[in-house]
Specification:
By secondary structure, the chain is mainly alpha-helical. The chain has four helices and no strands.
Length: about 70
């Protein structure tokens, strides 16, 4: 089943995108920062969410890990 039709998988993909974009921005800041508009601007926005809301993102990662390990 596609991640678009399964809500838990969709949330996992979005959470992984947020974490990956924030990590890549910390390693290669020029690559993410130069593209603030268009399709690549989505990755910049995800990186900003990951940086500014990092405690909430970390709690969501822990919750998602627990549900994947123990619930599914």
């Amino acid at each position: 089943m596609s991640a678009l039709f399964n809500f838990q998988s969709l949330l996992s993909v979005i959470l992984l995108l947020i974490c990956t974009c924030a990590y890549l921005r910390s390693i290669f800041p020029g690559f993410i920062d130069r593209n603030k508009t268009g399709m690549m601007g989505t990755f910049w926005k995800l990186a900003r969410i990951g940086e500014r809301k990092s405690p909430y993102v970390a709690v969501c990662c822990l919750f998602m890990a627990a549900t994947v390990l123990f619930w599914s």
